[in-house]
Each structure stands twice: as structure tokens, then as C-alpha cells.
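request received
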Amino acid sequence: MADLLLRLANDRRSAGLIRKLGLPTPVRLARAEGAYDDAPLAGRVTLVGAAPGGLAVDALQKAAAEAGATCVAALAEGQSADTLLFDATACRAPADLAALHGFFAPKLRRLARNARVLVVSADPSELADPVAAATARGIEGFVRALGKEIGRRGATANLARLAPGAESQLAGLVRFCGGPRCTYVSGQVFRLTSAPAPAPAARQLAGKVAVVTGAARGIGAATAQRLSEEGARVVCVDVAAARDALYETAARVGGLPLVLDIAAPDAPAALSAFLREKTRGVDVLVHNAGITRDKTLANMKPDVWDAVIAVNFTAITAIDAELLANGLLHDSGRVVCLSSVSGVAGNFGQTNYATSKAALIGYVAAQAPRLAARGITINAVAPGFIETPMTARIPLMMREAGRRLNALSQGGQPRDVAELVTFFALPASAGVSGNTVRACGLALIGA
Ligand code: NAD
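response:
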């Protein structure tokens, strides 16, 4: 569904009128094409700062330099900043937080369109002193508020919460959050823990097998595309009613189509049999298929409730149980579940959907420590308003509200969600597990 306001606000002939009417003026968002290359931050003017005593500043500097960023100590006359990286790991007391103001405030007027901010803090749960823990937690509020301020320029801000010894994990996150791929992810927290991980590189999924459910269209099709760009061979799964589109996606990404209703009782066994025969297992499992059947609870028939729970929740746990039990999910595997901001904040008419999507948030948190011994990570992505056939069905006024009520004043594209899924899927993201991260353009309402 085309976004007319985005077009009018970016057309010289109509931009003035849009401003006069007081309508939101979304900027055109930057997006990357194709796979990561060896220098994903090439040409980006990057400043790295730290509160005194920070433990992560060297890792940030190294990550930015290795990603090809143009690191400068200060902005030259007329230069603007594309990426700001700040190490706040040493902030332990309220007065330390002034370092955030000191670094960011003078630079914000010289922030480029579509700029990226990444702040690194200590993990409050690792700090015994309540004031130190509260100080670290405060940084999350700073990042969220900053994201809301800079969103008007298409810029995003995110937070890495670092467990002791996890500095090396910043390399992959800087490539994602410091560059154009982090288009619609803002105000989010990524918890990083120490784990052996390869250095990020181009086409890191070469030789890997991915499964994407609901791959015929929307976010699933974009995810199949992104994972294939990174080198994965993708098994594309969808229902019989979507057969034609499924075969098109599979052909486009050079993958394998599999017609399967994931909620059918024999679906886990059928998927297992397919993988055993065709690919000898899976490295990246993306549980993307999902349905909505909206009704207020008073008007919701039991079959509508059951259908949503079956596809969005039960099927996922059943498939995982089967693939884990028979060893088809490989060591160092990656599991990504598509949750929703409805699962974070709830939504009118979506008690069934919100229940299923909140369950996935709990599921990844509970599974992560259980899978860690095998090097498998599991995370959830919670999209906000994404322009897909699912949201095209929303009535006009509600659709407009969904689109605009975020810091970027526009809906995201399926590819924006696929970028976040791909970040979780990469071998370099070994220290990121149990997270739920929203791809919502920093929604203004809800959690
Ligand atoms: P979509 O409706 O455009 O596509 C979903 C795909 O899943 C379809 O191809 C459909 O045929 C397939 N599918 C449905 N039931 C299936 C089943 N039982 N077995 C196999 N395949 C099945 O949806 P989308 O907008 O691309 O959303 C993808 C995921 O992201 C869903 O889990 C959805 O709940 C979630 N999500 C989307 C948005 C959004 O704004 N679009 C927001 C939050 C969450």
C-alpha cells in the first residue's frame, strides 16, 4: 500500500503545503541493498566517545574502523555526523550521566539525515550497587528519548547492554546499528553476553541452511531474500493457498519450496522428513508465519481464538521440540520468532493475537539459557506497523494512525524487519540470545 503522505512530503511542489497543514513530514529512509560487504560503514563520518573509564571504547573504535567508517575526533567545518558511538559502561552514579549530555548535545545540530546512534551501557542486572544499577538503567530512557527526537530526521538510536567480557560482540552490532540496515529499529536494547563468535564478514551464511515459514509474501519473503543474499540456502514454507507465490519466492532466492500448514498435527514430522532428506538439517530457523483474526473478546468465537494460538504459538514450540529432539537443528543454530508490538503492549481486538505474540517473548527468554550449551541462540523480533498484505487489510483511519504514531512517522518495509532477523541469524551474533527487539520505528504509544 503506497504511502501518499511520504511521497507528498518529499516532493518539492507539495512539501510546503504539508508543513502548513501541520501534517507529519516523514523523510525518505535510507536502506542498504544486497548483502553485507567488508566495509558496511564505508564513507560514514563516525565519532566515538566515552564516559571516563569506559571498558568498551576500544572495541567500538576497532569495530567502526574495521567496518570501514571514517572515524574523526571532531567534526570539521561543514561536516555532519553519520554515526555516533558512545561508551557509557563506566556510568555508575547520577553525576556520570552528564557525559551523555556532554557528548551528544553539541553534535545533534550536525547530525546527518538517517544518522545512527549506538550507546553501550553496563547491564544493570550485573551491578550489585542499587545506584549503579539505576544509573545504567537510566541510559535506556536516554536512548529512547533521543531516538524520538532524532527520528524526525530519519535517524535511529539504540542501546547495547554489555555483560562482563562481551566487548567483542560489539563488532556485529556496530555493523547493524551503526549503518543503513538499522532503518526501522530504534530505541531498542540489545543484551550482549560473552560467547565465542567469528569476526563479522561478508556472506557469513554461505553453506548454511535456513527455514523461513510464511515465506510466500510480506516479511517472510523479504527474510528469505535477505538470508539468501548472505549465502544461505533457504527452505521456503507456506500453505497450499499461497502455492504460486511460494514457488515464486523460492525460485527468486534459489531456495526450496515446501507446501506445509505449520499448524497441521503432522507438520513437525513433515518438516523433519523434508529437512532430513533434502538438506540434512537447519542452521537458521525463522518462525515467521502468523495470522490475525481480530474480534473483541466478547465477540470472539472459540475457533477464532484457537486458530491464532495454534499458528502463532503452538506450531512454533512443536516444530522446535521436534527439530531439537531429532538433532536437525544444528549446533550454533539460530532461531528467530516473529512476535509483535501487540505482544509487548496489547492491542484492541487482538486478545488472541497479543496472547500468542507475548507468549513468544516469554518463549525466547525461557529457551535461551537451555539452548546456550549447544551455541544455539533464540531471539524474537517484534514488528510495529510494516507495509504488508496483513496491514493493507486494516481500515484506512486505523492504518494511518498505525503508520504515523512512531518516531519516523511512517510504516516500515518488510526488508527492514528482515534486516533485524538477519542480524540475529549471523554467526557473529553468538552473544545475543533471549532478546525481544522491536522493529517499530520507535512507536510512540505502548511499551
Ligand atoms: P502476511 O499475512 O503478509 O504473510 C504471512 C504469511 O504466512 C502468508 O504467506 C501466509 O500464507 C503464511 N501463513 C499463514 N498461516 C500459515 C500456516 N499455518 N502455515 C504456513 N504458512 C502460513 O504477514 P506479514 O505482515 O508478512 O507478517 C509476518 C509475521 O510478522 C507474522 O507472524 C505477523 O504476525 C508478524 N507481524 C507483522 C506485522 C506487520 O505490520 N505486518 C506487525 C507485527 C507482527
